[in-house]
Automatic annotation (TrEMBL), chains A, B:
GO terms for cellular component: nucleus. Gene3D superfamilies: DNA-binding pseudobarrel domain (2.40.330.10). This is B3 domain-containing protein. It comes from the Eukaryota. Residues 26-129 form the TF-B3 domain.
DNA sequence: CACGTAACCTGAAAT
DNA sequence: GATTTCAGGTTACGT
């Protein structure tokens, strides 16, 4: 069963904002092309236009987007719109990210931003679902050194990525979403932190 | 056995200059990309910077280089530096040359200049090596209506192209280099002229 | 709007 | 082992 890691159960958005450092934007399950020789990541149009708008003036040659990963490492990607395929893509720099993180088709890339500085972007990832609950994650099985909360009220509601067994709760104008099945025992935060931070070089663990 | 056509045996540079009309600069064995759909010829950096320097002032958008072929026909190519690949290229005009000369991968393009007018450039070519010594060259098997001598004293001394069985002689400040094995019978000039000029429409043959 | 070509990008290989 | 080179790709754009 897939755990939706950043949509933790009964935490209010305000409470989350206090000790969570990232605002989730969207996820992209990687296609074979996303991790293959095309050296590009297609960003679903609805997310691209909502969070990374290219309003013409943004530059016909696209722009450079800077992200931080779970270790605080900086990643800069060229972001542009391809008329030929009518799609938004990350190009230059993307293949290096795929290689360093050993990403494969089915793995999921997570985009987020700083709640108080919307220009500060983060990129995370996790291994493709199916094994997390069945076995302890191997080292480097996922990346992000912090908690997340959703940025808006309709995360993938219409997308294929939405977990149809999840539950939603609207608090303080923000919808929260989480999985009901197979709740983790004990603290709701520890497994998440354990999972995401076990290999984090900056030491942001749940201790 | 490949004949090094412009590095003829015991001819002094001065003698050569009297009746040879071209100063050899360098050769480029054509890659599949050089003759393919990329419509560009990559000029090895060492040769580009030595003979076709683009000193910034040459124009960030490159410059137009004019050459004469074996028939005296004028060819103009756009010559520029690609920052992305850190390489010097001939672009505009190149594909027409490839098509007219029927150049294929492995064929060799030869660059030369006028000894007394260094701004006068020549471009020649020959079919890929391996058959010249084994069989008489077919019509249109190579192009250049003149003799060549090396432009400088260290042609590929450190490169892979240098024939390790060749001999060198320094005369008048110019190193000459030639193969000792399998010397051509008779005149040292006739095979060269025969080979390069057999199809020359202007009739500059060895007659 | 299809085609030709300029410019950009990357991986592999050489150094 | 980091850097440079360049062959082989890509997209973008002008005609």
């Amino acid at each position: 069963m897939q755990i939706n890691h950043w949509l933790s159960p009964p935490i209010s958005a305000a409470a989350a904002k206090i000790h969570l450092s990232k605002e989730a934007l969207f996820e992209k399950p990687l296609t074979p092309s996303d991790v293959g020789k095309l050296n590009r990541l297609v960003i679903p149009k609805q997310h691209a236009e909502r969070y990374f708008p290219l309003n013409g003036g943004g530059g016909e040659k696209g722009l450079l987007l800077g992200f931080e990963d779970e270790a605080g490492k900086s990643w800069r990607f060229r972001y542009s719109y391809w008329n030929s395929s009518q799609s938004y893509v990350l190009t230059k720099g993307w293949s290096r990210f795929v290689k360093e993180k050993r990403l494969d088709a089915g793995d999921i890339v997570v985009f987020a931003r700083h709640p108080d500085d919307l220009g500060r972007l983060f990129i995370g990832w996790r291994r493709r679902g199916g094994q997390e609950a069945a076995a302890p994650p191997p080292p480097n099985s996922g990346g992000w050194s912090g908690l997340l909360y959703p940025a808006h009220s309709h995360v993938d509601i219409h997308g294929k990525e939405r977990n149809r067994n999840s539950k939603r709760l609207r608090l303080f104008g923000v919808n929260l979403e989480w999985d009901e099945e197979e709740p983790t025992s004990g603290s709701i935060e520890e497994p998440f932190l354990e999972y995401y931070s076990s290999h984090c070089p900056t030491g942001h663990t749940a201790s």
